[in-house]
Amino acid sequence: MSVMSFVRPAALREGDVVAALSLSSGFVARVPHRYEAGRRQVRAELGWRVVPAPNALRGEAYLYRNPQARADDLHWALENREVAGLLSTLGGDDSVRLLPLLDPAVIRAHPKVFLGFSDSTVTHLQFLRAGVTSFHGPALLTDLAEHGGMHGYVSRGVRQAVMDARGFRLRPAPEWTEQHREWLDPDLQEVRRTFAPSGGWVWLQGERPVQGHLMGGCLEVLDMLNGTPGWPEPALWRGAVLCLETSEDVPAPAQVGYWLRNFAAQGLLAGAAGLVLARPRGYTPERVEALYGWVRRVLWEAGREDLPVLANVDFGHTSPQLTLPFGAQARLDPALDVFEVLEGGVTA
């Protein structure tokens, strides 16, 4: 099987300017204290100077009515020589509306680190379709603006993915949380959340080691993207280690199974090298077991009982979360309990 090759952007360095982009929701304008906390913590932990794209702070109503302004911000950040990287402020639910407005030639001509998750799945896949590595990780308003300071697991994960040109081994977070702190209340910004010990990751099936390029994203967003001109070509899926997560919508386990059946019908599971599932947000232990049952069922239906599946992984809608370099080669080894990125997603 041939190995997919992607253009790798330059590694971010301390002192770099990174543009904050609101490519979906403009909620950031309602929580200026959270935005400023994120900027401070990014500067303190990563050394970057965050600046807003021209339209990023113009508010929910304006950005909803003006998808062109959001696409313009992406192109502006890519073409601006003073901007070294791109950072999503938050997710949302309508990045798919940007598809007719995005220019893949600009993405290809100006490869830069793009970091985000959730609805940023749309943008990540357009980077991959343009042949450029992209980075599924925390947004400015989420883990980067964590209450009371950025979690060390998050800052280390970002650094190893976008500031180091070497490969790295991924490891479970020692703790995690879903505790809610009201973002609209500035007085709660410095009140740390309570974290519980992590149960670690779990292998659902598989025995032999596999290798492939990372790709995927939020399943609800992939469902919106499916069938549009922004859906990746079959060759891009072939040989991939699929990294899939669910959002705060908490889809039923059966719904996840239906989405995977769609992937099977398209031949995406037949051609996959491996599957990595994020810790599902808002699930009870019973719901988690039902989810895993559906995953095994669909893979049996697809004749992929051989496919290595690693679950409960710390990415997506969980805290703290990893940063995954989509497009980089990765290796799964169930026997040795290994999930590692074999090459840097950036260049030195």
UniProtKB/TrEMBL annotation:
The keyword Hydrolase applies. SUPFAM superfamilies: Class I glutamine amidotransferase-like, LD-carboxypeptidase A C-terminal domain-like. It comes from the Bacteria. The keyword Hydrolase applies. One of its GO terms (molecular function) is hydrolase activity. CDD domains: Peptidase_S66_mccF_like (cd07062). Residues 211-332 form the LD-carboxypeptidase C-terminal domain. Residues 18-137 form the LD-carboxypeptidase N-terminal domain. Keywords: Hydrolase. InterPro entries: Carboxypeptidase_A_C_sf, Class_I_gatase-like, LdcA_N, Peptidase_S66_N, Peptidase_S66C, S66_fam. PANTHER family: LD-CARBOXYPEPTIDASE C-TERMINAL DOMAIN-CONTAINING PROTEIN, MURAMOYLTETRAPEPTIDE CARBOXYPEPTIDASE. Belongs to the peptidase S66 family. This is LD-carboxypeptidase.
